[in-house]
Task: structure prediction
Amino acid sequence: MIVANEKPIEEIRNMIAGYKRIFVVGCSSCVSVCFTGGRREVAHLAETMRVLGQKEGLSLEVEEESVLRQCEWEFVEPLKERVEKSEVTLSMACGVGIQTLAERYPKALVYPAVDTTFMGMPRKIGFFEENCAGCGQCILGETGGLCPVARCAKSLLNGPCGGAKDGRCEVSKDVPCVWEQIYNQLSLKNQLEQMEAITEAKNWSVGMAGSPRRRIRADLLENEGEK
Amino acid sequence: MKSSLKEVLNQGRFAVTAELGPPRGSDQNVVREKANFLKDADAINVTDCQTAITRMSSVASCFILKRMGLNPVLQMTCRDRNRIAIQSDLLGAAALGIENVLLMTGDHQKFGDHPEAKGVFDLDSISLIAMVKKMRDEKKFLSGDELNPAPNFFIGAVENPFASPVEFRAKRLGKKIRAGAEFFQTQIVYNLERFEAFMEEVNRLGFSKESYILAGVCPLKSAGMAKYMRSKVPGLDVPDHIISRMQEAAEPKKEGIEICVEIIKRIREIKGVAGVHIMAVEWEEVVPEILEKAGLKNT
Result:
């Protein structure tokens, strides 16, 4: 899932300064699971703005809504009327959802109310951890099911580096050394010899370092002519 | 004219290398002054923005040493350059007569003066070593394109006997040998027992016959420095008895030199160790005294 953080309320206030009709739109998918941009968080932000507005003598009209998946046309389509009558639409979806909304309503001012951070999993309630970098060439089969590209601070493919101490990463004692975890997992699987295999320079061009990525399924793609 | 580091090691002489940290400014005289203290070493390592603190470039500093008739070891990390920049800098270094390289991943930028920088880490230490070996032996860039003339580097790498998982460290050194490393400079040794255990494993696996291993040492200036190195420098093991010796010393600097000399003498006795690498961080002037006391002057 995609994880995001709430933006500081000060930053949001600066975005909406001077506007009265505000529309807050959340997403009930990933950002809802990480308690950042779901229905409850939308209600909370909307209420916070109403209270702040009252305190400062501004008569803000704050509307709120949450859609199932803000990253798809069909779910943002029903928002048309309310986006268009608002001066500012604050999206609490991930960056993908925010852009979907912004692209669908090009004349509207669509602003981000959250900072999208990473792809990861809820390790337990309230604890989310990055574990996939979307690098475009998965090596999890060689690394005991743990990704060093996302989970090693230096994305080492031949780890662990010399900074690991007592199983912790050199950048922070709070971060486990993923290469030590890989070592332990490979040991459990009787595959420790994989630690000694030399992994050559990675092809980063299939990941973020290449051009913006697309996936085209010719079999599913609607023929222009049929439209 | 000094013998090259490779010649010294091939002749089986106990080699001495010393580290020089380039200045945080553009005055080449600072490099020269520091180098004057390190002239007795067989080669001088020039760090590559160590601990991610911005300093004069390693290639430029190495060239200053080269013009002084010294043997520089160019340290090159993966933190600040991608494969294009590294290959380009290495060709430049070779053109300037630099013969030795020490290849490593590098400290994370978080530790440095620009913690908000984007770390590169296009390669890691091992893919970097393999790339440089390919440039030298196959006369090819990493891409496979022809390279002419190829640089003829003596390829060095680092290993930290004290980092976890400890049982993998000797094997990781072996992995670097297979990638192309010919000599090693280890992380600073304060814990001799652990270093001995590491070397035993290295010897058992035959790696000290396939490469030259120089043990890293660093004189301590104060008890505060010892504690700092234990808690803040990635992957260092400073045992309690060293810290208490520094705390109880009437003259901590003298004690630090004494400890360093003792460690060097013990290291010389360990099977498989080909030399010592002295990292007197911002204290280069103490190196002649250490060499003198350790009986390593004019080796």
User: Anything to note?
Assistant: Residues 16 and 185 of chain A are 49 Å apart (CA to CA). Chain A has two domains: 2-118, 133-200. DSSP finds eight helices and nine strands in chain A.
